[in-house]
Structure formats: structure tokens, C-alpha cells
């Protein structure tokens, strides 16, 4: 199971409405909150409800820009 954190912002509005983003998400993804002018989304892949094949394309169809946050970092 893959865990994802994404930053989402609207291309049509200056301020991105978290409720609008929430409407595009399946049950295994949710809005965590706002950071600057972006909505933070977290979730995990489950069956066909994956970030790459469902969530990101669906958000893009609603004119949102999606950037996945890389939470992996090398530790010394």
C-alpha cells in the first residue's frame, strides 16, 4: 500500500477552496488542511483508487494543479 501527500491548487481561482478539492477525492484520500494557497491532501492507494491512475487525473480534470510531496529522505 502506497501512502501519498499532495499539494493541490486551483488554476482558475486565486484561493483554492478545500471543499472543492474534497469533492474530487475518493474515500481513501482526504483534505488535511491549507498551507499557504495550497490544499494538502493525504491518502493511500486502495484497489483501483490510486493517486497516479485516479486521484491526480481526476483533480486535473477539475483544473487543479497537483504536486506530490516526496516524504522520503536519506538518513545518515
User: Element order, helices and strands?
Assistant: EHEEHE
Are there runs of 5+ residues with pLDDT below 50, and where? none
Major β-sheet strand ordering? 2-3-1-4
Q: Please identify the oligomeric state.
A: single chain
Strand content of the residues, in percent? 35-45%
First-residue to last-residue Cα separation: 26 Å
What is the averaged pLDDT score?
A: 91
Number of DSSP helical runs: 2
Q: Tell me how many strands there are.
A: 4
Radius of gyration: 12 Å
Structure explained in plain terms:
The chain has about 80 residues and is of the alpha+beta class. It has a domain at about 1-40. The protein has two helices and four strands. It has helices at about 20, 50-60, and strands at about 5-10, 30-35, 40-45, 65-70. A four-stranded antiparallel beta sheet has the order 2-3-1-4. A hairpin with a 2-residue loop joins strand 2 and strand 3 (about 40-45). It is globular, with a radius of gyration of 12 Å. It starts with a strand and ends in an 8-residue tail after the last strand. The mean pLDDT is about 90.
